[in-house]
Amino acid sequence: MNNIELAMSAAFIVAMIGLVVLWKWEGIGGALVVGGMMAFYGLNFATSGRFSSGWFFRSVSCRESWLLCVGVISESERRARRS
User: Fold this and answer.
1) pTM of the model
2) Residues 10-31: tens digit of each pLDDT
3) How would you write the chain as a 3-class SS string?
4) Most buried among 21, 25, 56, 60, by the most CB within 10 A?
């Protein structure tokens, strides 16, 4: 396994850890997934010149982007209630 593949694997593992974390904290988990997938896609594009085209990668990125938004909205509502 070369360095690029290792970095892509690490980014993907961060994204999968984010899936577990978002069960408890939507915002943090969503940020981990989106950040991990962005790093994965960026590394993949830098090495191959194209983005991954599999359905799995698109479904994870799209769904978790939505959960990140839900986490941000939930946190802002919690802060508004405290004020």
Assistant:
1) 0.70
2) 998 998 898 888 888 877 888 8
3) CCHHHHHHHHHHHHHHHHHHHCCCCHHHHHHHHHHHHHHHHHHHHHHHCCCCCCHHHHHHHHHHHHHHHHHHHHHHHHHHHHC
4) 60
